[in-house]
UniProtKB/TrEMBL annotation:
Keywords: Hydrolase, Signal. Gene3D superfamilies: alpha/beta hydrolase (3.40.50.1820). One of its GO terms (molecular function) is hydrolase activity. Residues 69-269 form the BD-FAE-like domain. It comes from the Bacteria. Residues 1-19 form the signal peptide. It holds the Pfam family BD-FAE. This is Esterase/lipase.
Length: 316
């Protein structure tokens, strides 16, 4: 190979390698580095499953060891977001509702963390309804504790969730002041360390009432939950003055999770004068992720989200 061609090949190979590296998570953090996972029944006969279906959706299930995957922008803005993929609390769609979204955030200077959270499973966990929330709060705590390392402003850390992951994000946003009531966090000096400064809720599961997504609540709480459990995990009923501002994104033709879920959470925030914005689209259905393959205005929701982050002062 002539010297010029070798040099050109080297430059091309190096460039491709760098792009490949930037597209991947640079670091994977164990949520529970001490090895003591809360509510663990120590059943190691169940193995984590990763599969891609005919619809090209990446699905992860049987999660035993929860993690945070870190995606670093070339030029950090100081903002960060933890992403909770959806999947009805039975799987996590960690591709189009996780990694793809994290890469988009890095393109606008936001440090992104994809949460692989434990799913409710009586075979693996006691009090299965607690485990996802424990992981989300622990993830926010780790991000804030490592803010300097990742060049993050600890006052600009948000949480984002899709569908059932949106329910988890809304639960963390409303229940974080009660974190110390969970056994895993009873020794924390303060719950403030796990507070999200903002939330982005994508076609979220919110209510346990008439517009509920029955499958998500059955997976989370079982077939015969008490009214207290239903109320505690009905996010619109848990909004308080300590709930952070939110951006909600939903399509009115969503046949999986009715748009009323977003509307109820939005109204609960507005009643307490907590800043809230909502992007509603006529078409889009459910599970559209970045909406790259869709036509119409829903295709532009990431740009609108970008402007919301700027307008709210989270992205400078």
């Amino acid at each position: 190979m002539p010297r010029y061609n070798r040099l050109l090949f080297f430059i091309l190979f190096t460039s491709i390698s760098m792009l490949s590296t930037l597209s991947r998570s640079q670091t994977v953090i164990s949520l529970w580095s001490t090895g003591k996972i809360p509510n663990d029944l120590q059943n190691r006969s169940i193995r984590e499953k990763i599969e891609v279906g005919n619809d090209s959706i990446l699905r992860i299930s049987n999660i035993v060891f929860p993690t945070l995957s870190v995606y670093l922008p070339a030029t950090p803005s100081g903002a960060a977001v933890m992403i909770c993929p959806g999947g009805g609390y039975s799987i996590e769609a960690s591709g189009h509702e996780g990694v793809d979204v994290a890469k988009w955030f890095t393109s606008i200077g936001v440090t992104a963390f994809v949460l692989k959270y434990r799913l409710p499973d009586d075979r693996l966990w006691s009090n299965k309804h607690e485990v996802g929330l424990q992981d989300a709060l622990q993830g926010l705590k780790l991000i804030r504790e490592n803010a300097a390392k990742y060049k993050i402003n600890p006052d600009r850390i948000g949480i984002m969730g899709f569908s059932a992951g949106g329910h988890l994000a809304a639960s963390a946003s409303t229940l974080w002041p009660k974190a110390k009531e969970l056994a895993a966090f009873e020794n924390w000096p303060s719950a403030d360390v796990c507070k999200p400064n903002f939330s982005i809720l994508m076609y979220p599961v919110i209510t346990s009432g008439p517009f509920k997504h029955a499958g998500s609540f059955e997976r989370l709480l079982g077939k015969t939950p008490s009214q207290d459990q239903l109320d505690r995990f009905s996010a619109e009923k848990q909004v308080s003055e300590l709930t952070p501002p939110a951006l909600l994104v939903h399509a009115t033709d969503d046949k999986g999770v009715p748009v009323e879920n977003s509307m109820m959470y939005y109204n609960a925030l507005r009643q307490l004068r907590i800043p809230a914005s909502m992007l509603l689209y006529e078409n889009g259905g459910h599970g559209f992720g970045l909406a790259k393959k869709l036509k119409g205005s829903v295709h532009s929701w990431p740009q609108s989200c970008h402007q919301w982050l700027i307008g709210m002062g989270y992205l400078q």
